[in-house]
Each structure stands twice: as C-alpha cells, then as structure tokens.
Specification:
There is one protein chain. By secondary structure, this protein is of the alpha+beta class. The protein has one domain: Aminopeptidase (3-Layer(aba) Sandwich). 35% of the residues lie in helices and 30% in strands. It is built from six helices and eight strands. The strands form two sheets. It has a five-stranded antiparallel beta sheet with strand order 1-2-3-4-5, with helices on both faces. A hairpin with an 8-residue loop joins strand 4 and strand 5. The longest helix has 22 residues.
C-alpha cells in the first residue's frame, strides 16, 4: 500500500487499480445495475485482466507522474475500498470525454449493488474532486449521466455539479453537468 496512490475519504479510500483488483472489477461490472449505465465496462475476465495489466495501471502511473499538469493525460482509475475490510466495492475515475467540448475532463463512478445508498459513492466523488481541484491544474469537471440514472444524478448534484443541458453520445441521451473550480472553492 505504501507505494500506491491513495485518497482518504473517511470510511472508504480511493486507491489506484492493481492486478489483484481484476476479479472484483469484473464482478462489479457484471452486475446489471452497473452495466445498464456503463455498458462499455462489461467485459470478460480475460479482457479485464488485459485492460488492467496493460492499460489502466500504466495510464494511472502516467497520470500521477504528470501532476499537477495533467492536460495530456487521459485517465486515473481508482478503486473505492472499504477501510474496515479492504474490500473493493466500486470505482471512481477521471478521464477525458472526447464527445464533450473542451475542457472535457469528467468524473465517473460505479458501486456494487451491495453497497448502495450508504453515501460511499458521494464520498468517493468528493474525494476525487478535492484531489483534482487542489493538486492538479483542472479548472472544470464534467459528468454525463444517462437521463434514467437518478441515483448518479443525485450523487453528482450532492457534489455541487450544475446541470447545463443534455447531450447525445452514441445515440443515448445524457444529462451533462459541470463543476468549476472557483464555484467549488466558494462552497468549501
């Protein structure tokens, strides 16, 4: 753990993905409650192992080594870990959303159906937002949420994001939210 990037969020912490997380990520993204809203995350176990090993861990290292100037870096993928048990219960990520106008850095998240409605997702999102606005040159964050994903919209709104309209991405309608660093700082 001492060599891994961690954000403390109270009862949970965010930690960069590890190879040991593959089974937990696979099981999480195989839950209908997750892939209904994040279909790109559905995979086979072998695909997930390949992605984590060959892309996501490498991307995380590049992102973290670029801090504070992260403009050219795409993704930081972090597991949501329950402190009491060290169980991987979800993920909270930031990346570039090419379908949005610049600045197009977004946050995204998912949590296991077994840990919903406990405030963990909101704590994770706030932890990542705090890190990005305090330790990187990020000035604005985006979030896109399928219009029927009421739970994720609530999390985004609790984090201070404002709805700016709807966008169509790959023939699906999403609510588009933004949060500016200056607005966020005013509410801290």
């Amino acid at each position: 753990m001492k060599d891994l990037f961690v954000i403390d969020c109270g009862e949970i912490y965010l930690r960069e993905f590890q190879v040991e997380d593959v089974n937990a990520i696979y099981e999480l993204t195989s839950q209908p409650e997750v892939y209904e809203f994040l279909p790109d995350w559905k995979s086979t176990r072998e695909q997930r192992l390949n992605w984590v090993t060959n892309y996501e861990i490498t991307s995380n290292k590049r992102f973290l080594s670029a801090v504070p100037n992260i403009e050219g870096e795409n993704y930081l993928k972090l597991g949501i870990i329950l402190k009491d048990t060290n169980e991987f219960i979800g993920f909270c990520n930031t990346g570039i959303k090419d379908e949005l106008p610049e600045p197009n850095r977004e946050i995204a998240f998912a949590i296991s159906k077994h840990y919903r409605n406990k405030g963990y997702t909101t704590k994770a999102a706030k932890g990542l937002i705090h890190y990005l606005f305090n330790h990187t040159n990020t000035e604005r964050l985006n979030a896109v949420v399928l219009t029927n994903n009421v739970s994720s919209s609530k999390v985004i709104e609790k984090c201070g994001f404002k709805l700016v309209g709807d966008v169509i991405i790959e023939n699906e309608t999403y609510h588009h939210y933004t949060l500016n660093k200056s607005e966020w700082q005013d509410n801290q």
